[in-house]
């Protein structure tokens, strides 16, 4: 189909990537976001090769490589500083044809926003619902404005306002029973080797660092916690020092090095897989369709995959918009549901839902051959739309 007018709700990774793909297809695209200023919710993100391949296809490969960190290996270490497993990731790059890129989220957002064109992103526009008839779909905004197009895409994240209209009921986030702290620090060999992704694990908690562009490490911590706890930014360093007391020297140095005011503290959740990702001329995309816990590092990559698959069906079929959206749903529903459920299972193992299973996992890490890790990662990557 040609000359479509597309209304996208949400200027996150999913909305912006979709905007870029659809603009390249010759469609007229406007994006609306409720935020007054676009600020990503976390500090860093690891874009695995399946996400990178899509961005390559959209012509962003060189720009992404320029902001990406060079991550060549991953290592699990115990909280008593024993190496549990070390995997050289380069055979993975050979197998799948593209390295992954850990990046700072602000760098990624700036890259995507500039590629799409900031003047077509309208801020301060909270969407409150959608309507449609046989010819158009309309987004309705809090201020009473209405924007119509051939289709509306709800790329408005885990607490999506578009989702209830598509699935017919409210879907709430499910708390995953742990808190994630994340931020950026200057790269320092005393913290971690510059091309290594290190994960310290123990006591159902973890602390991790990986390289991103600009000679920095993206770090994150995770620990089980009851829902609803809040800690002021000024006290986050003290909180981490207490939770990770006695952990190895690099973890202590990381806690000393981080800027507590710039350290995000997030309660992590996901949503149950949905029966429908589309209704007529309205499609859900990214976290609004399949928010997942970040234990596989695939949420953002799946949003990026959604963007190119949805665009492909709109551009390669001509029965109609609703038909193309159905094909998008059929292509994406099982893949994304499968990853949500796998990440959920991994979350339970990492964060000690069943403490014996977590202890067993620590023991298994020592036995797992690197090829098995590479093959598992390759399987997820190669099942993406770019192969
Ligand atoms: C701690 C953490 C670590 C992660 N690590 C990784 C990783 O390593 N690799 C990976 O691939 N993924 C990772 N993810 C997942 C990834 O961040 C998400 O899957 C991704 O950001 C989803 O993008 P999105 O565009 O769908 O949604 P979002 O990024 O949530 O964007 C939604 C946008 O919609 C706007 N919006 C919301 N409601 C409305 C409304 N009513 N009206 C208008 N606008 C609205 C918001 O302001 C926002 O800009 C991680 C997630 C977390 C929490």
TrEMBL record:
Cofactor: FAD
Protein's UniProt keywords contain S-adenosyl-L-methionine: no
Pathway of action: Purine metabolism; urate degradation
EC nos: 1.14.13.113
GO biological process: purine nucleobase metabolic process; urate catabolic process
Name this polypeptide is given: FAD-dependent urate hydroxylase
Highest taxon listed in the record's lineage: Bacteria
Family (UniProt): Belongs to the FAD-dependent urate hydroxylase family.
UniProt GO molecular function: FAD binding; FAD-dependent urate hydroxylase activity; urate oxidase activity
InterPro entries on file: FAD-bd (IPR002938), FAD-dep_Monooxygenase_BioMet (IPR050493), FAD/NAD-bd_sf (IPR036188), HpxO (IPR047712)
Coiled-coil segments on the chain, per record: none
Catalysis performed (reactions): urate + NADH + O2 + H(+) = 5-hydroxyisourate + NAD(+) + H2O
SUPFAM superfamilies xrefs: FAD/NAD(P)-binding domain (SSF51905)
FAD-binding domain residues: 4-342
Keywords: FAD, Flavoprotein, Monooxygenase, NAD, Oxidoreductase, Purine metabolism
